[in-house]
Automatic annotation (TrEMBL):
Residues 201-278 form the Transcription factor NusA first KH domain. GO terms for biological process: DNA-templated transcription termination; transcription antitermination. Keywords: Cytoplasm, RNA-binding, Transcription, Transcription antitermination, Transcription regulation, Transcription termination. GO terms for molecular function: DNA-binding transcription factor activity; RNA binding. Residues 282-344 form the NusA-like second KH domain. It comes from Ruminococcus champanellensis (strain DSM 18848 / JCM 17042 / KCTC 15320 / 18P13). This is Transcription termination/antitermination protein NusA. GO terms for cellular component: cytosol. Belongs to the NusA family. CDD domains: KH-II_NusA_rpt1, KH-II_NusA_rpt2. Residues 4-125 form the Transcription factor NusA N-terminal domain. Pfam families: KH_NusA_1st, KH_NusA_2nd, NusA_N. It is found in: Cytoplasm. Its main location: cytoplasm.
Amino acid sequence: MNNDFFAALSLLGAENSVETDLLVEKVKSAMTKAIHRAYPDSGDNVRVDIDPVTKTFDLCIIKTVVDDEPLDDNEINIDQARLIDPSAVVGGTVECKLDTASLSRNAAQSAKQSIRGDLREISRENLLTKFQDKENECITATVSQVEPGRGTVTLIYDKTELYLFRNEQIPGEVLKEGQSVKVYITGIANKQKKPIIKISRAHRDLVKRLFELEVPEIYDGTVEVMAISREAGARTKIAVQSHDPNVDAVGACIGPKRSRITAVVNELNGEKIDIINYSDKPEEFIAKALAPAEVLSVTITDPENRSCTVVVPNNQLSLAIGNRGQNAKLAAKLTGYKIDIKPEFENPIQGLE
């Protein structure tokens, strides 16, 4: 029976990522409570001995030996005591072993619930310890399962299952079992009960973290990411600024032979990325944000409400607006300005556009 118990204990510890010693202490505590429940008068006379090394599992009540009828669970008649220990004497004590079967059903159930509760709390603490300092960071996880219907992807990170829901995936991306992918931890929900690690591949800050991994100048602070706007799966715009006049911010992000930006694009399943130099001057920043379109002029029409009018050559109008307005929307998000794009000539003469 003891071998089965310790095998189950080892499995329970492995499944819940709990050290055996800690689990033993929790089981001891639960069994002590169960004995107190079954034997209310036992008080401090309870002993629970669990040793995985020697495979020892003993439950005892230490009873005082008396020469008459016992008054409660803490006493035992001398005749009964000598059946346990022939050298027992009146006034002394003997250890009376208990069989788990002797515990009441309620006491046993209480012990199980106590152990389950302890395991949940240990699991909660372990999860928080593992991910607390990774909130708003990027991690690499392995795809273990892709659910066909709902599209939820199960990932494994350090023996922990994480769930990447469809709305946090890159549109059009197909993930496969065994594939390693980088995800951004957006937060930890329900910290007080059962923590849920929220992850995303669609979040704009994933792009920032990927550039930090690929560009040493961003990681060490020489180049700073000032703003990001993203339409996951389609295009990202990122504004950067160098704090060293000898370092080209855009060039550092692109890297030798485009190696750095290519690594980020590949991780994002081919998503297009526009890198521009940040400017403190709104007009300059807005003009650059509309790249690759050429901009003729930018007029701030309402500084308080951050609105502007941008004039572009007629043959650049479609490029400035972008497919379904994508370029204009991303530029607006990047700069924080409402952008009204107008052609250079409202009614161009045919053939002169």
